[in-house]
Design a protein that fits this description.
3 domains; alpha+beta; four-stranded antiparallel β-sheet; elongated; Nuclear Transport Factor 2, Chain: A
């Protein structure tokens, strides 16, 4: 059994290392120092040192043995990653995500030592990514914004559909089921697993429910619900 290092995993581990270093006095103190230390550890084959730079969350999901095996199985990819991290980097862009008890998320950005609300927080019905689209869909449904819910319908299903028809459908016999779905998504969408493949995405929630999403014209729309 072999382990392949994909860009997304490498990036995840790098981000985890950056976040961990912020609270560890014995470790590199800033993102650039972390990049340098992580790059050096990978380049020299020091799996233990590289692993120590990973966040506790990353270490919980990836054992040292698996990490060590992954490095040994993919020497060329690891060498390329190490070289890339050793190159010049721009100023660090530090962000944080805050979740509310109601499942809402808010992005913060660190500017000149002060945390500020990121501009996307102004977009209450964002469709910038699959997770944002699902959260926005729930918000539009709860606020009875059927005019906005139309924006989440793929072009292939828009023919003849109006806000009025959507309202009649949503407030008819399936209202109770939709209310349950809305509540489930409100609770779980912020942390649900998302699988992304090109312009398609699948969000998994609850005990096996899924939502299929499609990117059209630069925004994400909802193709189908599977309870």
């Amino acid at each position: 059994m072999s382990c392949n290092v994909g860009p997304s995993l490498a990036l995840s581990l790098l981000i985890a290392a950056l976040s961990w270093a912020c609270g560890a006095p014995s470790q590199p103190k800033d993102p650039q120092q972390v990049l340098s230390a992580y790059s050096s550890a990978l380049a020299s084959g020091n799996a233990q040192e590289a692993y120590a730079l990973l966040s506790s969350e990353a270490q919980r999901t990836l054992s040292f043995g698996t990490f060590q095996h992954m490095l040994a199985e993919n020497p060329r990819e690891v060498a390329n990653l190490a070289r890339g991290l050793a190159g010049p980097a721009g100023p660090p862009h530090v962000t944080a995500t805050v979740s509310t008890p109601h499942g809402e998320t808010l992005e913060l950005v660190l500017e000149d030592g002060v945390w500020k609300v990121e501009g996307s927080a102004l977009d209450l019905y964002s469709q910038a990514n699959p997770r944002a689209a699902v959260v926005s869909f729930v918000r539009a449904y709860e606020n009875n914004r059927y005019d906005l819910l139309l924006k989440f319908v793929p072009d292939s299903k828009l023919a003849g559909l109006t806000a009025k028809k959507l309202q009649e459908s949503f407030e008819g016999k399936q209202r109770e089921a939709l209310d349950r779905l809305s509540q489930a998504l409100k609770n779980e969408a912020p942390k649900a697993k998302i699988e992304l493949l090109g312009d398609h995405a699948t969000l998994r929630y609850g005990g096996g429910g899924t939502i299929e999403l499609l990117e059209e014209h630069g925004v994400w729309k909802i193709e189908e619900f599977y309870p």
